[in-house]
Amino acid sequence: MKIAVCAKYVPEATAARRIDPSTKRLDRTGEGALNPFDANAVEEGLKLKEAVGDAEVVIVSVGPTKALEAMRRALAMGADRVVLVSDDAAAGSDLVATSRVLAAALEREEPDLVLFGQQANDGDGAVLWAAVADRLQRPLISQVAELEHEDGKVRGKRQTEFGYDVIEAPLPAVVAVSDAINVPRYPALKGIMGAKKKPQETLSLADLGVPADEAGEAGSRTTVEALNDPPARGDTVKLEDDGSAAEKIVEFLQEKRAL
Amino acid sequence: MKFLVFLEHHEGRLQKDSLGVLGKAASLGEAEAVLLGSELEALAANAGRFGAQRVHVIDDVLLDKPLPQPRVDALKTLVGEGGFDAVLFAASVLSADVAGGLAARLDAGLNYDLTDLAVEDGKLIGTRPALGDSVYADVGWSSEPRLALFRSGSFEPSETGGSAEVVKFESRLQDFSLAATMVEQAHEESEGPSIEDADVIVAGGRGLGGPEGFEAVEELAKALGGAVAATRAVVDAGWYPYAAQVGQTGKTVSPKLYVAVGISGAIQHKVGMQSSGLIVAINKDPNAPIFEYADLGVVGDLNEILPKLTELVRARKAA
């Protein structure tokens, strides 16, 4: 069984994040890391591999060359290899363009199961898996909090606005997991030492047969027109409770006609 | 400009957020809607009251279960006939997957997590908060149709009292779209309004000290006629059900009044509730981040304040 885990290189959570005013894109020049939500997908892939026995977990990513280093964390956790699509022409890709590049990389791998994390922590719409599933023409189960696998099928339980759903799909399939599904393991020292030696492949758009004008900004269908400050909220009225806080809250609500 | 709004329905009711988006579309141009499932004509006609001039319906039991992929097929058929400048969705577990799939199918631009939409010099512009809502981007589209997915709670539905023409259409559904099947659907019954529909929300966090702390929160919510919400930390700790979770990995809400009790207000929580009309925060830590964006911040012991506040609200409502 081949399991592909889609993973994103995101700015380090502790780094101050900014948008570059000239490109109107997120400034990605600083330190980066494996998107923490993708670690849940890696963990689920590894658990599945352990249950199945004969399986391979491949990390598939689209990003700058330095993303490779961040993806080693997934290798240290136990993934078998990394495929990174890195091409200047892919920078600035929106959903349509990213899903095209990622789907091309996945088609080359022909995995039985494609796993996604629930979102990227750097401003993602949690819509990529649906676009990729459509391009691959594979069944999709998203927001999965419990995953089972048997007889060539996967079954996912997920939380919705109204309760929960249990959805079943035959393999090959695309599954996006929620971060409630597991607690990702910490890489052991041995894993960290061994990660560098595992196969790590960097591909260009040409390697995948994706024309440069179908990726990056040229292949995107959305634009950022302007960046503005958030609308200002009124000033905060702050008070310490001296025993009359409840009365003061009621007065405030009446004054604002909220009661 | 001609809009198509994807209407979501659940147990015979049109969902509030999609009606809100419909109202927005009607305020900007010609609004049509699409409703997918079986035996939906009466429900479709209802959408007229919320601004739809025409509602496209499919009558197909294969679309009864809320699964996204056959809906992509149906929308591709409808939108493929042309004539729509934009297709709009209100975010939900289902709609996000439908919108993402449709973007790939049509090679169309999808702007997501939008909180507003406007027509400026004949151009459609969306508002997209970014980086923990510290920046508001104006976003656009470079091809048609333009796809847009709005944050929940972005728009209030407005009942204008019109009527809609209901038009049936048919679509072939792809084999791969029907491969995933719903084997079980369970619904959590909750008392009172859901947090998406509530005008008033009282939300509890770690400061409550334990699951029993929610009793006082529930009492206050009941007195105010509102719903109870919870932060991710307490949902993870098992103090309150996930359906009530507000924040980055939960729901986005925008009630008229949001009372945050024992919530420090980290950015992950802030993005889920900051567009609330009025925010009142009670926390014992004077340095809690929530005081930076609350309208009224009270530093104090919630165990003292909550029961008194509940009593006063009850008395006020009874008067």
Describe this structure in words.
The complex is a heterodimer of chains A (259) and B (319). By secondary structure, chain A is of the alpha/beta class. Helix content of chain A is 29%, strand content 30%. Chain A has 7 helices and 15 strands. Chain A has helices at 36-52, 67-77, 95-109, 128-136, 189-195, 205-208, 245-255, and strands at residues 2-6, 9-11, 19-20, 25-26, 32-34, 56-62, 81-85, 113-116, 140-150, 153-159, 163-170, 173-177, 200-203, 222-228, 237-240. In chain A, strands 11-10-9-12-8-1-6-7-13 form a 9-stranded mixed sheet, with helices on both faces. Chain A has a two-stranded antiparallel ribbon with strand order 2-5. Chain A has a two-stranded antiparallel sheet with strand order 3-4. In chain A, helix 2 packs across helix 5 (189-195) and helix 3 (95-109) packs across helix 4. Chain A is globular. The termini of chain A are far apart. Chain B is elongated, with a radius of gyration of 21 Å. Chain B has 2 domains: 2-178, Rossmann fold; 200-318, Rossmann fold. Chain B contains 8 helices and 18 strands. The model of chain B has no long low-confidence stretch (mean pLDDT 93). In chain B, 27% of the residues lie in helices and 29% in strands. Chain B is an alpha/beta fold. In chain B, helix 3 (68-80) crosses helix 4 (93-106). At the A-B interface, helix 3, helix 4, strand 9, strand 10 and strand 11 of A face helix 3, helix 4, strand 7, strand 9 and strand 10 of B. Strand 15 (237-240) of chain A pairs parallel with strand 18 (296-299) of chain B.
Short description:
By secondary structure, chain A is α/β, with parallel strands linked by helices.
Identify the CATH homologous superfamily of the largest domain in chain B: HUPs
- The backbone outline of chain A, from C-alpha atoms, is globular
Tell me the helix content of chain B.
25-40%
N/C terminus separation of chain A: 60 Å
Number of helices of chain A: 7
| Biggest chain contact | A-B, 83 and 92 residues
Spatial order of the strands in the main sheet of chain B? 7-11-6-1-4-5-12
Shape of chain B: elongated
Secondary-structure element pattern of chain A, one letter each: EEEEEHEHEHEHEEEEHEHEEH
